Write the structure tokens for this entry.
Amino acid sequence: MIRILLADDEHLIRGAMAALLSLEDDLEVVAQAATGAEALATARVVRPDVAVIDLQMPDLDGVSVAQSLAAELPSCSTMIVTSHGRPGHLKRALAAGVRGFLPKTVSSDVLATVVRTVHTGGRYVDPALAAEAISAGDSPLTPREADVLELALEGAPIDEIARRASLSPGTVRNYLSSAVGKTGASNRHEAARVARARGWI
Amino acid sequence: MIRILLADDEHLIRGAMAALLSLEDDLEVVAQAATGAEALATARVVRPDVAVIDLQMPDLDGVSVAQSLAAELPSCSTMIVTSHGRPGHLKRALAAGVRGFLPKTVSSDVLATVVRTVHTGGRYVDPALAAEAISAGDSPLTPREADVLELALEGAPIDEIARRASLSPGTVRNYLSSAVGKTGASNRHEAARVARARGWI
DNA sequence: CCGCCCTCATGACATCTGTCATGAGGAACT
DNA sequence: AGTTCCTCATGACAGATGTCATGAGGGCGG
């Protein structure tokens, strides 16, 4: 019997997934959590075999949870399910020791199969997401460029970005100009969108 | 027995919700769809009592589907479930004749209860979402301002917005300037974000 | 019929942004 | 020690953007 921890902030989805996994004879949902912190706390107590975690949760995101879990409970395999599969997330997740990565568009059979796969030490990444991640390529942005671009996401003017990054406005403009060139965009707002879509920030 | 049509592009969620609703004695999921168009086509054939529709789907969004359903199948009550509850969506949904509006954070009991409620002619809107919608207030934007601001969402330069809206660049700047004032933002990109957050576009 | 508002436009002006050249200081690698 | 890259900065310039004044035309309610 594979003992599963389920974490998802959407109660409806979580309950439904639990119902669905419980239909399988060899799977058992032993705990549920609605936030990242809750998931960690619960995992420490129940020590599940597999953790199925939603990528986006109110507090910690799924990758952070996975990272902590990998460190604290090496016997527990972590897999992530998500609605919005961005290439950057996949990379960060794999780096964090995640064994499975699935979009929520897969069928329940696949979910159950992957739970079994990661439990026996295997890995599984959704083929479509993997292809996207590969085609997106590595980020050409330097760390600082990425920082600044991230601050530009909300549409703030340069002066505010400069204050928040503790840089001079001129420097911010240089980084943004460089980032705009690398993304092929025509201004920083578009560049920020492109970079996010490719998982670079 | 209440006959239900379920539409959600996320296979996993849809299957799970179906499993969950089927646990109720008086509910029966008679059809499922993965896109808006599919939902409409299926509804015409199976004529369900209640349609449970996800707000965000690849092609038509949930509100458009609801609108068509209300016109074509008045006997079918429509309710919408969503991950991202923006006030604007709620307003549009109610205007389209939707009877129930729920975030996916609710429990399965609530879902089942609301299905029964809308089937008997009642209405149900999640209290938290309703409060948000009320506090967000009515949009101060004129229709044209909203159009232009929407085109600005992706960060396009003014000239492109002007082309896409078939306006002169000068006019676009006037509308945007006005919208920036009304949203209290410091540039059009921030204004677009604010307006979207408040459900104005 | 007369305001009032929305739509669309133009011109002028100040400011904000994007781009480029240039340079100092530091870390990493050879 | 030398090379290369990143970080951070300044100054200058062109072009994009935000703001304001102004006006023509149309629809709608009083």
